[in-house]
Amino acid sequence: MDKVTLITGGSSGIGAATTRRLLAAGHRVVIIGRDRDRLDRLATELDAGDAVLPITGDATDFDEMATAVARTTETFGRLDHVVASAGFSSHDTIADADPERLRDMVLTNVLGPALLIKAALPALRATRGRIVLLGSVAGFRNSPGNMYSVTKWAVTALAENTRQLVTGDGIGVTLVAPGPVDTPFFDGRAQGAPTIALEPDNIADAITWAIAQPEGVDVNTMVIRPVGLPG
What we know:
Mean pLDDT: 93
Distance between the termini: 42 Å
Structural class: alpha/beta
CATH architecture: 3-Layer(aba) Sandwich
CATH class: Alpha Beta
Order of helices and strands: EHEHEHEHEHEHE
Strand order of the largest sheet: 3-2-1-4-5-6-7
């Protein structure tokens, strides 16, 4: 039976690239995002028919995530994997950031993945599925006043915290922690994307490989940097 994967932040960047890779691998994919137009454009571009289910939803709203999981299981009969890809950076420091922007970043980057895990656990226990959390190299090293880094340190902890919670249920947990990736993530950064950066497909390939591992194999942490990046 085809595997079913739900991806938050699925309409652009790493999420969209992962959707393409998984469809090519025979998955059915649920893509969740806040922007309905963007979701619909991607679904049309993919031209995958009933294999793609776009759902408008806010990753920081538990009821919306629970509804998305319910729609997934009602539509496809199962849920095998979730990928928490929704996230953003304010590209500033604690000293000069808008406090509301900081709040939104913490909610999206940290609370969002936790709520997805909570909503999906019953379905994943039934399939002995896998959870993939998008972290960052910034979750392993600090830079001055970088609140985005703080959120990704939290995701690094969430991954191991969750692994210990669910491993007895046969559920795998993988943290994928990329260095810079050339995506719309950097649209709000004055200098744009870094000159040394990965492509979204590089990370999508890693996610696809991790969730394709046989039952009993749990790939826990993947730190992926472009060659030539010193930090």
